[in-house]
Amino acid sequence: MRAGGTGPLELGSAEEVADRIIARTDGHIVLGLPLGLGKAPHIVNALFARASADRAIKLRIFTALTLEQPSLGTDLERRFLEPVFERTMGGYPRFAYAQAQRAGEMPANIEVNEFFFQAGSRLGNGEAQRHYIAANYTHAMRYLIDQGVNVVAQIVARRGNSYSLSCNSDMTLDLLAERDRGRADFALVGQVNDELPFMRGPAEIPSDRFAMILDSAQTRFPLFGPPRQPVSPAQHAIGAHVAALIPDGGSLQIGIGAIGDAIAHSLILRQERPDSYRATLDRLGAPKPWETGPFEEGLYAPTEMLVDCFLDLIRAGIVKREVDGAIVHGGFFVGPRSFYAALRDMDEDLRDRIHMREISYINALFGNEAAKRKARHKARFVNSAMMITLLGATISDGLEDGQVVSGVGGQYNFVAQALELDGARSIITLPATRRHKGESQSNIVWSYGHETIPRHLRDMVVTEYGVADLRGQSDEQVIQRLIAIADSRFQGELVEKARSAGKIAPDWDIPEAYRDNLPERISAAMPKEAFPSFPFGTDFTQIEQRLLPAMQYLADHATRPAQLAALLARGLRSGQPDEAELAALERMGLDAPHGVREHIYRALILGALRSAGQ
Q: Are residues 382 and 480 in the same domain?
């Protein structure tokens, strides 16, 4: 306890924090953990250990997006990715509840509810699937309060007697407001982490908001830092199309991942090399009118997730329009370790213009609605999907057998917001195809047994082949516009499905301009010199960047024995590897193979390197 007894109880041991929480709650703990990065790992692991050892303790955890290193299947995957993961995520604590969940060994007195999963990480996991709670981001706090939350534990940044919620102001600020109103009763417990950037503004809170603070050198840890993913030509094409939909003086929300990087890259190209950007749109056959002018007034970013490419947009002078002293209002962040360092090292005046806020402020219009409407001028809310039906329903979070891939998150919030704001648009992005068991499949489908956003909320959809404006259109028009941005290998089948359902005219045919929607055209339109795989840098070494397409090529063909055999044969016939290939083999530990298995691995890698490089 600080002098005078007004501050939080400061402790140096996670076990002591756990014991005090158990005493405070009489052993019936409803623990709220932030989504993503903000969880306090040592505290939750200590509570999990206590509850595992004493079945009289009841522990219920409510959270989302538990960050873990992805599971690796094959030996080749492990050889390639384990060193990368060690560099980017090494030292980040593992969550005991997630390990028990994966092993099917969750104690009966412990329950874990999540409303968002790391994409694909819980497929086939009965424990996680049964206890998943479907929720819009804006409703999750309400459900947590309804469950009787009595402890919230998160990592914080510290400056003297002040603390910053930093990466996760999202639900915590809303929960504190409800506590102030007498609608919730919980202890806020912080775990200090020196690697967190100290975000000021609404995220900075006084020490008396906390009941306890864990501050010890023994509980410091490096932050989880997933590496940026490579951007494919198709994703770059999507980014180029989206960038032409964003007006100067508007507002922008985008999410994490390669498509977000692609959008940011094309926005910067539009700003700095407008002739090159317009030439790209011409090569893609993008129909006019385009938004291709410079960002003189700039953009304001009300975005639930502050993704690292927003820093690149700030540096480029694109995100600069201020609202209440901020150019960005974000709810949470997670990204590469270079992103956290950039925030820490940023000029303080600039960092103070990035405000981390409560999610109710960002994802909803309620509360100070008139001011929000004025601020979110010409808003573009960009989100990704897995599939879309020909009638305009979006599939983003789950499969038709009920398995949850990720979660709704804030996608519905932003779709609904776009339909309520004057001049705003919701933009759903997705590649036209995906690879499944070695074959290409269309992501535009006639129907699917699950949907995230219903068809009556359809707005804009973007694939690498163009933009489909669906808002206010008839079913027939929606179908025709989506077929126009589908891969041409699947257009005929989609036309027949729609025609047999009586949803398009019997004599309608695909216009000639949309019959060449093929990957080869996109690759030719997006030269590597202007559209690199890593437009904002990467944690992958040069050798690893060379291996990446080969590893993807190998994965795409791994389930087809004939193609795998052909790849193996090519590797065996390849002769002596050149210098670059030898460096790649050395990186994989296959420069001097031992035994039959390693010789096969070596041949597969050589075959994949040469096939992917064609």
A: yes
551 and 482 in a common domain: no
> What is the distance between the alpha carbons of residues 601 and 585, in angstroms, rounded to a whole number?
10
Do 238 and 214 lie in one domain? The reply is: no
Supply the pLDDT for residue 2: 46
Q: Which two tokens stand for residue 163?
A: 């603390």
Q: How many domains does the chain have?
A: 3
Tokens, residue 324 = 């209440």
Q: Is 582 found in the same domain as 449?
A: no
Query: Do 424 and 380 meet the contact criterion of CB atoms below 8 Å apart?
Result: yes
Average pLDDT over residues 308-324: 98
| HEC string for 249-288 | CCEEECCCCHHHHHHHHHHHHHHHCHHHHHHHHHHHCCCC
Nearest Cα neighbor of 526 from 271, 269, 167 is 269
CA 579/CA 507 separation, integer angstroms = 58
Please report the pLDDT score of residue 571 as a whole number.
86
Indicate the residue type of 444. I
Beta strands in 26-89 (DSSP E): 28-32, 58-63
> Is there a domain that residue 277 lies in?
yes
Is residue 237 within 8 Å of residue 530, measured between CB atoms? no
Q: Answer yes or no: do 354 and 244 share one domain.
A: yes
| Three-state secondary structure call for residue 81 | helix
Other Cβ atoms within 10 Å of 251 Cβ, number: 25
The answer to whether the pTM exceeds 0.85 is yes
Over residues 453-476, the mean pLDDT reads 98
Q: Measured at the alpha carbon of residue 185, what is the angle toward residues 180 and 186, in degrees to the nearest 5?
A: 105
528: phi then psi, degrees, rounded to nearest 5:
-60, -30
Burial of 438 (0-12, 13-18, 19+ CB in 10 A): middle
With CA atoms as reference, report the closest residue to 247 among 418, 414, 419, 377: 377
Rounded CA-CA distance 255/305 in Å is 6
**At 193, which amino acid appears?**
N
SS3 163: strand
Cα distance between residue 444 and residue 546, in whole Å: 31
Considering the domain architecture, whether residues 602 and 474 belong to the same structural domain is answered as no
Closest CA to 306 of 336, 269, 265, 270: 336
Under 8 Å CB-to-CB from 25, ≥6 apart: which residues?
150, 151
**248, two tokens:** 């100067």
The torsion of the CA quartet 112, 117, 121, 125, rounded to 10 degrees, works out to: 40
Domain that holds residue 460: 233-520
**Whole-number Å distance between alpha carbons of 207 and 220:** 19
Instruction: For 551-595, write each residue's pLDDT tens digit.
Output: 999 988 887 888 888 889 988 887 889 999 999 999 999 999 999
Q: Is residue 132 domain-shared with residue 15, that is, in the same domain?
A: yes
Q: Which residue has the tokens 């820490």?
A: 344
Report the sign of the C-alpha dihedral through residues 306, 311, 316, 320, in that order.
positive
Do 177 and 245 share a structural domain? no
250 falls within a domain: yes
Question: Is 534 a domain residue?
Answer: no
